[in-house]
Amino acid sequence: MLRFLILRVGRNRNIRESMEVFEAEGHAIRTVHLGGGGKRNAVWRRMIGDVFGKDIALLANRDASAVGAKRRKNVRTAALSLERHSVYGRIHSRYRKAYRALNEFYQEEREDAG
Q1: What is the per-residue pLDDT across 65-85, written as a single tens digit (0 to 9) for each?
Q2: CA count, 13 A, side-chain hemisphere, 54
Q3: This prediction's pTM
Q4: 71: domain CATH number?
Q5: Domain span at residue 32?
């Protein structure tokens, strides 16, 4: 179970970074819509909402990616925990620092080797 959660948190951080790029470019993201396998696990749904700090909407159609945005009216919502979001935010901040440090380390290693 712990390995599952670690993998999921890592994936969430990667998705969060993409979301932050969109928001930095001026695109407001208020709700994360989940469909398919992503909506089946309650722990995963809660973790996504907490990591992103966004409301979660569960798409009624399992194959929502094929159906598209016109089905947006068929959603249910999941509660966001501001306390857990704050914890994930602090973890994400440390993750970003570690990522930048490792990126710099590997760039230096590449330069030394080349």
Answers
A1: 555 555 555 555 566 788 888
A2: 19
A3: 0.49
A4: 3.30.420.40
A5: 2-113
